[in-house]
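Submission sheet (multi-component)
Chains listed below:
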Amino acid sequence: MESVLALRGLVLLRDSVEWEGRSLLKALIKKAALGGEQVHILGCEVSEEEFRAGFDSSINSRLVYYDLFRDPLNWAQTGEALPGGPLGALQAMCKRTDPGPVTVALDSLSWLLLRLPCAALCQALCAMSRQHACRGGGPAAEQLCVLGLLHRELHGPGPTGALSSLAQTEVTLGGTAGQASAHILCRRPRQRPPLETLWFSVLPDLSLDLQGGPPLESQPHPDPHTPQVEPASHLTFNLHLSKREREAKDSLTLPFQFSSEKQQALLRPGPGPATSRIFYEPDAFDDLDPEDPDGDLDV
Amino acid sequence: MPTQMAASLCITFSPSTSKGVSLTVARECGQLVFLEGLKSSVDVFFRAQAEPHPLQFLREANAENLQPLYEFVREALKPVDDGEAAWRCPVLLVDDLSVLLSLGMGAVAVLDFIHYCRATVCWERKGNIVALVHDSGDTEDEENNILLNGLSHQSHLILRAEGLPTGFCRDVHGQLRILWRTPSQPTTQRDRSLTYQYKIQDRSVSFFAKGMSPAVL
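Outcome: structure written.
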């Protein structure tokens, strides 16, 4: 179960109004800090004091915080705003990570996505992993984890799909009866199933308490050792055509298909009497009245 | 559907919780700062302004943000007596944000305005903000949905007032769903939301559990 938390690459934490995701984000940050990783946080939605609340002093001292909450658009013009606006702040943060395992937390991706063009944001996220790889320390896929908090009601399918295509893992938060759940989708599964649901709670000290997935909620995943069964192997009807059957089918003229031959046949009057006739054999119960053929209809 | 044009801002300091608060007295002694949007908008159009008016966006064809309105809020919060605030713990009441959308502002501009108000009122001045937003239930109104959901994600407490699902009732005017979003005490057993029904009276509101209206007991 702990292997699920070994997240790398871009991880989307998709929360909702009912089930907020900031506490899970903070729990994952704490886990990364305790693991000795550098942790960089871009804080847009809440104040630095509010974000740091709950971390103990040893963890707080390890967090590198970029405050985009106080004056993100430089309205105060005090010179304290991060230069370059939101995009500049994101790009500057990418450049300041040292080689080695790094966790970057974006609180939130939704805030950035509402104010930046989607393409620019996606390019900045891709550049982040490239720049970190260039600085040495191994492939970025193993060294860099970007945790992006995304409020799923705020964005349309386009931007959400673009971010999903960049993400290695999507964690969709939900829950029932006061218990939070995380539906985890891994796009590059290695040793864990691609789809998993966990029930969890974030304790007051921001530790993560995983309770496993209830049987009714877990998604079935294919066992890699079982050979795939051909779905059409035991049908009672034939789905395929032999070569002879295909030729016969191709040469068949449909009854209502109007071709030049048919047109000529219709224009030329056929020799002899009409070839089609209708024969009617009345039943014993039929009561035919030649003067009132519809008498039995009672209309 | 015509929308009533009323965008009003109230900034009150330590408001009295007793019944019958006199807003006139509060305004005179500086406890209440009141910007009446409807009246004030007339000034924007018919009177020359030396400084940007809080509702300056009404005059601009492509107003990008509500910075003048935020500057008004920030100025109202500044201490006036010898550098010390005469009042503490400000409360900013905004009635209502959906009108700003109707007046042509984008949802992100309104969210930016509330963001800056939060930074000043909540973080700097340790106060609170109460904002009203309408939810018409129209899923095709993207701007209002972005505003509603964006504000919800910024909020620590959401009060959702709606009519009774069973229709009109003389003794029960609606129901209020309270959703806590502060993860300060995250426990699995904690109530995340409560629903009450209410009846609006002359100067107060009475709340009761569902089905427990005094009229039916």
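Remark: The first strand of chain B starts at residue 8 and ends at 13.
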